TrEMBL record:
<dbReference type="Pfam" id="PF00392">
    <property type="entry name" value="GntR"/>
</dbReference>
<keyword id="KW-0238">DNA-binding</keyword>
<dbReference type="InterPro" id="IPR016286">
    <property type="entry name" value="FUC_metazoa-typ"/>
</dbReference>
<dbReference type="InterPro" id="IPR057739">
    <property type="entry name" value="Glyco_hydro_29_N"/>
</dbReference>
<comment type="similarity">
    <text>Belongs to the glycosyl hydrolase 29 family.</text>
</comment>
<dbReference type="InterPro" id="IPR011711">
    <property type="entry name" value="GntR_C"/>
</dbReference>
<dbReference type="Pfam" id="PF07729">
    <property type="entry name" value="FCD"/>
</dbReference>
<dbReference type="InterPro" id="IPR017853">
    <property type="entry name" value="GH"/>
</dbReference>
<dbReference type="InterPro" id="IPR000524">
    <property type="entry name" value="Tscrpt_reg_HTH_GntR"/>
</dbReference>
<keyword id="KW-0805">Transcription regulation</keyword>
<dbReference type="InterPro" id="IPR036388">
    <property type="entry name" value="WH-like_DNA-bd_sf"/>
</dbReference>
<feature type="domain" description="HTH gntR-type">
    <location>
        <begin position="10"/>
        <end position="78"/>
    </location>
</feature>
<dbReference type="InterPro" id="IPR000933">
    <property type="entry name" value="Glyco_hydro_29"/>
</dbReference>
<keyword id="KW-0326">Glycosidase</keyword>
<dbReference type="Pfam" id="PF01120">
    <property type="entry name" value="Alpha_L_fucos"/>
</dbReference>
<keyword id="KW-0378">Hydrolase</keyword>
<keyword id="KW-0804">Transcription</keyword>
Length: 688
């Protein structure tokens, strides 16, 4: 029985539109056909001429019909790639109102197109796709030192990326998908497109299509769309951290206010903690060796982590065996002994290992959270996983290092997190072994590895309920990091996760940057893993740790310090000395650190060039000034003008210091500096 207007419940105009589309879909009106005169068409559709006119106008707007002046209205070619993009204004409104729904639809369409492309790909049909990939590589590696060039680079990337995704639909021989891809990409806002990780995902997608892997292609394409086109528009702006030269502190800028309102997405405990430790201990701790970088005479301080090549990281021992100083050292000391042979020695040490001794030292350092490496790039597991390794079932510990550390740490009031290398795993695919410079492009590919990684993460989450997830080297392109994090947050509502998952999920802990909460990660020495070549000269001293912590905290960050148990599971004496100094200092001055928030200015200097850091209490009723170095007597703090009634008091004392206006800022008369402290800490309450 044919439906009628009454039985469908549609309005007259909806009915007219439905009936007219049925005529076109059935072939009664084909491409190039002229519509009957309006009166005849209305009679045929069973509606008024006005309703027929509305239906025609709607289809003209959509591109299904074409009005030719003086000649009538004709059915178009009905090519989806031509018709569908005409709906962009409508979809743009939908993307604004229902971004998550549109994002899911988009991911499903592109995933389906990629799966069909993988099923139908031929060497000839892949030509346009590989050409588009080449264009993306050129766009990624184009040098862009200036902001206008950055915008130009983004534009070139986006144009090349649209071409890439249209080429997938072409390989799939799917004109509807091509039209929908054009439509959806023109209606949504790109995130920060240009990155090595996104380029790597494009490359993996091409490999999956060329390798005729529909499931992998579908998953990679869906995750790629999610990463490129986040459903929600990212917030922008960075705080103004310059110090005003006015006679009173400048108010927070609009950008500051934006940052602070976005901070709620990072758990409060993490923002309050300020100091954490990450523990690298594994098979690599048995040889425990890496070359030391060349030093300028008289300069023995560790270089910044981002400037330290992986060959100086002892935890990269296995990858460094390919050539160079580590390979030469290994041959000289161990001959032809393979890396995996160190497992026997590690397992024997585990019998006497004491997680309690670790936890006591961690707590004494003042750390409020501890992150245990569960799997590093060598793929060796520090917990007795039930997930089967498809190539090496025994590549894991027999004693639960992760679980026992979690218990010991939590018993002493600290939070516990896990670190897991999702991108790199040399045990899963030895051919993927690489140094830090190319680890992002040498990760195991395919759905098997993606499933293996996800199963591990879910097992860690369900078994230990970690307070934080510290990922490394990205996430398999065939996996879904966003869903993993959302499921984790359902189970652990105040849990945190790092941006190294490389997903658009909100509220991740970013790498060093000014603005909202972030985390700076670096070892106490040169290497995260134990390196027997390092001495106290290669280790940050206690006073240096204090200064580093204050610099990070004042800028709204947390400091995560890497500690390196040796081959016996003992913390090196030179690292312990620095950590204990830091802990003793925090016992006395932690009020200016823990549970603080950044002030409207992060730092200034004294007249003689010493750094001054500002922090404020979470309640906002106290401001802390931390002045570098042992200052006694008059100390002028540039660009800070204290009102006459202000009462700056050294932390832990009762008597306020005298102050008056100087020529370039407030002049404070400081007492003798506290013993065993590289800084002087003052408290102002009420805060400015």
């Amino acid at each position: 029985m044919e439906p009628t207007q009454a039985s469908t419940g549609r309005s007259a105009s909806e009915w007219a539109l439905h009936q007219l589309l049925d005529l076109i879909q059935s072939g009664s009106l084909g491409p190039g056909d002229r519509l009957p005169p309006e009166r005849n068409l209305a009679t045929r559709l069973g509606v008024s001429r006005g309703m027929a006119r509305e239906a025609i106008s709607a289809l003209v707007t959509m591109g299904v019909l074409e009005s030719r002046h003086g000649a009538g209205v004709f059915v178009t070619s009905l090519e989806p790639a031509v018709v569908l993009p005409r709906l962009a204004p409508v979809v743009a409104i939908m993307a604004g109102k229902h971004p998550d729904d549109v994002a899911r639809l988009h991911a499903q369409i592109e995933g389906a197109a990629a799966a069909r492309a993988a099923a139908r790909a031929t060497p000839e049909s892949l030509t346009a796709l590989t050409q588009a990939l080449t264009a993306l590589r050129i766009a990624q590696h184009e040098p862009t030192p200036r902001a206008p060039r950055d915008r130009f680079k983004q534009t070139i990337w986006r144009l090349s990326d649209d071409r890439f995704h249209r080429a997938i639909a072409s390989v799939a021989q799917d004109t509807v998908a091509e039209g929908m891809i054009l439509l959806l990409r023109s209606s949504r806002e790109y995130g920060e497109c240009v990155s090595d990780d996104l380029l790597h995902r494009h490359e993996e997608l091409v490999r999956a299509i060329a390798g005729h892997e529909p499931d992998a292609a579908r998953s990679i394409a869906q995750n790629l769309v999610t990463a490129e086109l986040p459903a929600l528009r990212p917030s922008s702006g960075a705080p103004d951290v310059s110090v005003s030269r006015a006679h009173s502190p400048a108010p927070l800028s609009a950008a500051d206010e934006t940052a602070s309102t976005d901070d709620h997405s990072v758990a409060e405990w993490f923002r309050d903690a300020k100091l954490g430790l990450i523990v690298h201990w594994g098979i690599y701790s048995v040889p425990g060796w890496a070359p030391l970088p060349a030093q300028t005479p008289g300069d023995v301080r560790p270089a910044p982590v981002e400037e330290t090549p992986s060959r100086y990281f002892a935890e990269w021992y296995q990858a460094s065996l390919r050539e160079g100083p580590t390979a030469e050292h290994h041959e000289r000391v161990y001959g032809t002994r393979p890396y995996r042979a160190f497992r026997t020695a590690f397992e024997s040490v585990l019998r006497d290992w004491s997680p309690t001794a670790w936890a006591e030292e961690f707590a004494a350092s003042g750390a409020r959270y501890v992150v245990q490496v569960a799997k590093h790039h060598d793929g060796f597991l520090l917990w007795p996983s039930r997930v089967r390794h498809p190539h090496d079932e025994e590549w894991r510990v027999t004693r639960d290092v992760v679980g026992e550390t979690a218990v010991a740490v939590r018993e002493r009031g600290m939070r516990f997190g896990v670190f897991y290398s999702s991108g790199a795993d040399w045990s899963f695919d030895p051919k993927s072994m690489a140094g830090a410079s190319d680890v992002q492009t040498s990760r195991p590919a395919g759905t098997e590895y993606a499933r293996y990684v996800e199963a591990h993460w879910r097992e860690l989450i369900e078994s230990y309920r970690p307070d934080g997830l510290w990922n490394d080297t990205g996430y398999p392109a065939a996996g879904d990091a966003r869903k993993l994090i959302r499921d984790y947050r359902t189970l652990v509502p105040d849990g945190v996760a790092t941006e190294r998952f490389r997903t658009s999920e909100a509220g991740l802990i970013p790498a060093p940057a000014e603005g909202g909460p972030w985390e700076s990660v670096r070892p106490v020495g040169l290497s995260f893993g134990w390196n027997r070549e390092e001495t106290a000269d290669h280790t940050l001293s206690g006073p240096e740790l204090v200064l580093m912590l204050m610099d990070v905290v004042a800028k709204n960050g947390n400091l995560l310090l890497g500690v390196s148990p040796d081959e016996h599971g003992h913390l090196p004496a030179h690292q312990l000395a620095s950590l204990r100094y830091l802990g003793h200092w925090l016992e006395r001055f932690g009020e200016a650190v823990y549970a603080t928030r950044p002030w409207q200015h992060t730092t200034t200097t004294t007249a003689d060039g010493r750094t001054v850091w500002f922090t404020r209490s979470k309640s906002g009723d106290a401001l802390y000034l931390t002045i570098e170095g042992g200052v006694e007597g008059d100390c002028e703090i540039l660009d800070l003008w204290l009102p006459g009634e202000a009462r700056p008091v050294p932390l832990g004392e009762d008597r306020p210091v005298l102050h008056r206006a100087g020529s370039r800022g407030s002049l404070l008369h400081l007492p003798a500096p506290p013993a065993a402290s590289p800084v002087t800490v003052l408290r102002l309450s009420p805060a400015l």
